[in-house]
From TrEMBL, chain B:
Protein name as it appears in the record: YciI family protein
Annotated family: Belongs to the YciI family.
Superkingdom classification of source: Bacteria
SUPFAM superfamilies, alphabetized: Dimeric alpha+beta barrel
Alphabetized PANTHER family for the sequence: BLL7171 PROTEIN (PTHR35174:SF3), BLL7171 PROTEIN-RELATED (PTHR35174)
Bias (Low complexity): 118-127
One Pfam family recorded for the sequence: YCII
Domain YCII-related residue range list: 3-112
Organism: Actinacidiphila acididurans
Length: 422, 135
């Protein structure tokens, strides 16, 4: 391979970082297919990047760094497979890898099709429903997003060895239980796609929930989720729900900074300082949402994004379209029935048709065993009672909500509301 | 003649214990050969560890998968199927179709293939590698 003169450590390091960011997933995804084993492929890719750092400092950055990494990773995979007896169909894998390695150059990357398939394969394998949800999340961040185990452990407030064990166990199960490296068949795709989107949204929520943990690490988690959302939308352009999820995350994330004020108190959407909103993110979120809605195949994420978009517009114009929001929640409850959606529907109806109508819908939820200790239920109950002119009952509901814990910011807001009732 | 199933139970042991057990391979081979020569053996195989299991239940028409071997304590082993599948999904689909999945559970556990058995020459405990030296 033609080389340039030796690079400075900084140049080589920067080039390695750049290729890692841009190409790691593609190289890994293809190598998993060729080597037939996630662990072998991941270790080999890691070896290749480590080797690049040394070689590029010595010999200069190659003209095609991505191809260099691909070739090096394949050779490292051959070395590892030779030593690893436990890999299924090892002999056949070795022969194929050796053939590719002898060929020397990278696979033709001008044909985008198979590469995209490999990246999708990687996503669907990491989110396979036979893996525990916590393992799906960890594995997605590890192999799809390329985070280190230490970073994932920090973000989820878990000890690093615990997280390492979770990831190793998941990879071992994929290999031993023969979880297929492929995109699900058409019949299984809707359900499996829902699983993938859920993993990404859980990662986002983990980062978005204010309070616990290091705020910066948490913001990174949101950024990773959005990056994953963009990837899914790019890989599955025909699936409007991937656009719906991306729009939902962008519209929430755009308002992250404005959620708490200068002294850390929670700020209601209607009172948020809109100069703290990220206008570019909102524009992008709205554009992605409109494109998804145009397919006329609505789904839960598109509906939630549409509701969020109406809230954002309402905060901008001072007039929130509550009847429309209530209608969207009703639709959401049809598609994805659940107590939390029912609660949000009741709250929206409380604004659209008045507190008494909202209370009528909310009361049955008070007996729901899944919601009994759900703080927002009692906070919403309190608000509806206050507006219905029953301050004593409202105070009791706010006290109930306070008794259920929550982070400091949320508690301060509830204290304020309770105080106003007295 | 009647058929009998011998179900082997053991704790999974730590790395050293597992290595010790795999070192007993010659004894296992001798016993297995003896049963085969006596015309008693139909089939036998070690299973991958419990952590590789997937439990399949069908409730309300929906297939629920659990990562691990979590049969409810009241559930007892009532039968078995040994399948040869291209991959896990195929086995999970077959498991979900069994009536037992709708009122009990079906544990899908991969069987170790002979070529992945750690032989005496490789004193490595099973295919699991320790969660160190990663990252």
């Amino acid at each position: 391979m033609p080389q340039q003169p030796a690079a400075t450590p900084d140049e080589a390091g920067a080039a390695v970082s750049e290729v890692f960011r841009a190409e790691r997933m593609t190289v890994l995804a293809t190598l998993v297919r060729q080597a037939g084993d996630l662990q072998v492929a991941e270790d080999a890719v890691q070896d290749a990047f480590a080797a690049a750092l040394v070689a590029w400092r010595r010999d200069g950055v190659p003209r095609n760094p991505a191809a260099w990494i691909t070739v090096a990773a394949r050779r490292k995979a051959v070395d590892r497979l030779r030593r690893d007896r436990a890999t299924a169909e090892r002999a056949a894998r070795l022969a194929e890898l050796r053939r590719l390695a002898d060929q020397g150059d990278a696979e033709d990357t001008s044909a985008r099709g198979p590469i995209e398939d490999d990246r999708l394969r990687l996503v669907f394998t990491a989110c396979h429903p036979a893996l525990d949800l916590s393992a799906q999340i960890a594995l997605t961040l590890r192999v799809v997003a390329g985070l280190t185990t230490a970073e994932i452990a920090r973000a989820f407030l878990v000890a690093e060895p615990t997280m390492a064990k979770r990831i190793v166990r998941a990879k071992h199960k994929i290999a031993a239980a023969r979880i297929g490296y492929r995109v699900p068949e058409a019949a299984d795709l809707p359900e499996r796609l829902r699983g993938v989107l859920r993993v990404v949204y859980l990662i986002f929520n983990e980062g978005y929930t204010a309070g616990e943990g290091d705020d910066l690490v948490r913001a990174d988690l949101c950024a990773e989720a959005i990056r994953l959302g963009r990837l899914l939308r790019e890989l599955m352009p025909a699936e409007p729900e991937s656009g719906g999820l991306l729009a939902l995350m962008l519209l929430h994330d755009a308002r992250r900074a404005a959620r708490v004020d200068a002294v850390g108190d929670w700020v209601a959407l209607t009172e948020q300082d809109r100069s703290g909103w990220d206008g570019e993110r909102i524009e992008e979120g709205l554009a992605v949402l409109v494109a998804a809605l145009r397919t006329r195949r609505p789904g839960p994420y598109q509906l939630q994004a549409a509701i969020t978009a109406l809230h954002v517009r309402g905060a901008g114009t001072g007039i929130t379209d509550w009847p429309q929001i209530a209608a969207l929640y009703a639709r959401l409850a049809d598609l994805e029935p659940g107590p939390v959606v029912a609660l949000n529907h009741a709250a929206a109806v409380g604004f659209a048709q008045g507190p008494h109508e909202g209370l009528r819908l909310l009361r049955p939820l008070l007996d729901d065993p899944l919601l009994r200790d759900y703080r927002p239920l009692h906070a919403t109950h309190g608000d509806l009672l206050r507006r219905a002119g029953d301050p004593d009952a409202a105070a009791r509901a706010f006290e109930r909500a306070l008794a259920l814990g929550g982070n400091a910011v949320e508690r301060a807001e509830l204290e304020r509301r309770l105080h106003r009732m007295r | 003649m009647a058929r009998f199933m011998l179900l082997l139970y053991a704790n999974e042991g730590d790395e050293a214990e597992r290595a010790e057990r795999w070192a007993q391979m010659p004894l296992w081979n001798q016993l297995t050969e003896g049963l085969r020569e006596a015309g008693l053996l139909v089939d036998n195989a070690p299973l991958h560890p419990a952590a590789t299991a997937t439990t399949v239940r069908v409730r309300g028409g929906r297939t629920e998968l659990t990562d691990g071997p979590y049969a409810v304590t009241k559930e007892i082993l009532v039968g078995y199927y040994l399948l040869e599948c291209a991959e896990l999904d195929e086995a999970l689909k077959a498991a979900a179709a069994l009536p037992t999945a709708s009122f009990g559970s079906v544990e899908v556990r991969p069987v170790m293939s002979p070529d992945s058995l750690p032989g005496p020459a490789v004193p490595l405990a099973g295919p699991a590698t320790p969660p160190t030296a990663r990252d």
